[in-house]
Amino acid sequence: MNSPKAPWAISVKTNRGIFCLEGSGRGLCRVVFPGKRRKVKIMGGDTETAREFATYFKDPRHRFKIKPDLSSCTLFEKKVYRALRRVPAGKVLSYGELAKRAGYPGAARAVGSAMKKNRLPIVIPCHRVIPSAGGFGEYSAGKKWKRWLLEYEKRDSSLGTRDSRKTGS
Fold first, then answer.
1. pTM for the full predicted model
2. Cβ neighbourhood burial of 118 (10 Å; 0-12, 13-18, 19+)
3. Residue positions annotated with a catalytic role
4. What is residue 124's DSSP assignment?
5. Which of 54, 67, 156, 164 is spaced 20 to 30 A from 46 at the CA atom?
6. Cα–Cα distance between 104 and 75 in angstroms, integer?
């Protein structure tokens, strides 16, 4: 990757609007959704990260290799985010299940707080975490985005499954 050493910001045009990615020499720091106001000077940045982010909107099964800058996160948050990044597109899990996977059984509420603090939605796919009681739960970019992301991933993964059965692969 061609990550600059200084802070950077780059806009990424997708079929769902223009996102802003902010980073540091350590990696991606923030994803800003279209329509969310944030005063950021677009000053060029990691074009490889931008290309990879845009790829998700063409193929939701894309597994991000983007390096996140988690330097401002607690050890707990880092473990939760790492566990969440292993959840494949099209799958969901509860806050309690994610807590178990991260090594903190019984810490569902703390996982919810970590999801709320996630500055890298989509890359750290907090949209895949839902309440055990049902429903979509909250999402920093709004419930419409969470619903769209879940349906987009699920629709694509089910099509992929049908296609593989059809072709015998």
1. 0.86
2. buried
3. 126
4. S
5. 156
6. 12
